[in-house]
Amino acid sequence: NKHLISAADLSKDDALLILDTAEELARVSERSIKKLPTLRGRTVVNLFFEDSTRTRISFEAAAKRLSADVINFSAKGSSVSKGESLKDTALTLEAMGADAVVMRHGASGAPYRLANWIRGSVVNAGDGTHEHPTQALLDAFTMRRHLKNLEGRKITIVGDVLHSRVARSNVLLLSTLGADVTLVAPPTLLPVSVGTWPCDVSYDLDAVLPKSDVIMMLRVQKERMNAAYFPSEREYSRRYGLDRDRFAKLPDDAIVMHPGPMNRGMEIAAEVADSARSTIVEQVANGVTTRMAVLYLLLGGEI
Ligand code: CP
């Protein structure tokens, strides 16, 4: 593959190659080798039409640690605010010789359009409510570090699935890796297509918790909602929030994940987010090595 747009594009071998490469790169970093010469002379453009903290910074760190030249483009402050189209923006980047474009965009499917206009690799850093494949890869990397093999492991993903590109990419990748995924959400926050996804669905978080090896809480995306989906924060928190009492129902070695940014006190209690069994900060660190692996393999032409 030249691009990474959907987790569905990854075979099990592709996914394991990325995760194993990330593991090797992490070992190199642990030996205090901060920078590798691998992508010297290559240009990676971070093209962000939507806000981001973790993804944008970790792709920048990943490209720099591989010695690539990095150009950061954010739509705010660019000629996009004067009405320039995605196509003309893409052609401008093409003229600058981008070997890879990492794009976040509010429209689902936008990276597919970009891939038609540029010669370099396109990496989807989150498109609308569609996908966020490198988030799923860093999540799988984090789970493997704690659980070793993901085959047959029980992964529970909870919350605003309807608006979550993270949930969709995780379901696709985790099922490819042989894990058993259960989504837990209020019926109004599940997409109509969920019946075709390779996972189970439950409305009862308390019943699922004792059987979970991993619980992944999703951010309630208030900015993408209206009152019909989401009547009350307090009611949501009471039924679907991971508070101290629910946390106690998890098996002793289960881990708690969240892709960030979090609504502390809504989908997850602060004391759970900050507990020793939370991998939330570790996920951010793993994001750098996982994204290094993706850039390394895509620009090296090996996946
Ligand atoms: N998890 C994630 O995509 O975070 P950002 O929106 O901060 O990049």
From TrEMBL:
Its EC number is 2.1.3.2. GO terms for cellular component: cytosol. Keywords: Pyrimidine biosynthesis, Transferase. It comes from the Bacteria. Carbamoyl phosphate binds at R54, T55, R104, H132, Q135, G260, P261. Residues 151-298 form the Aspartate/ornithine carbamoyltransferase Asp/Orn-binding domain. L-aspartate binds at K82, R165, R219. One of its GO terms (molecular function) is aspartate carbamoyltransferase activity. Pfam families: OTCace, OTCace_N. Residues 2-144 form the Aspartate/ornithine carbamoyltransferase carbamoyl-P binding domain. It catalyses: carbamoyl phosphate + L-aspartate = N-carbamoyl-L-aspartate + phosphate + H(+). Pathway: Pyrimidine metabolism; UMP biosynthesis via de novo pathway; (S)-dihydroorotate from bicarbonate: step 2/3. InterPro entries: Asp/Orn_carbamoyltranf_P-bd, Asp/Orn_carbamoylTrfase, Asp/Orn_carbamoylTrfase_sf, Asp_carbamoyltransf, Asp_carbamoyltransf_Asp/Orn-bd. The keyword Plastid does not apply. GO terms for biological process: 'de novo' pyrimidine nucleobase biosynthetic process; 'de novo' UMP biosynthetic process; amino acid metabolic process. SUPFAM superfamilies: Aspartate/ornithine carbamoyltransferase (SSF53671). Belongs to the aspartate/ornithine carbamoyltransferase superfamily. ATCase family. Heterododecamer (2C3:3R2) of six catalytic PyrB chains organized as two trimers (C3), and six regulatory PyrI chains organized as three dimers (R2). Catalyzes the condensation of carbamoyl phosphate and aspartate to form carbamoyl aspartate and inorganic phosphate, the committed step in the de novo pyrimidine nucleotide biosynthesis pathway. PANTHER family: ASPARTATE CARBAMOYLTRANSFERASE (PTHR45753:SF6), ORNITHINE CARBAMOYLTRANSFERASE, MITOCHONDRIAL (PTHR45753). This is Aspartate carbamoyltransferase. It comes from Nonomuraea soli.
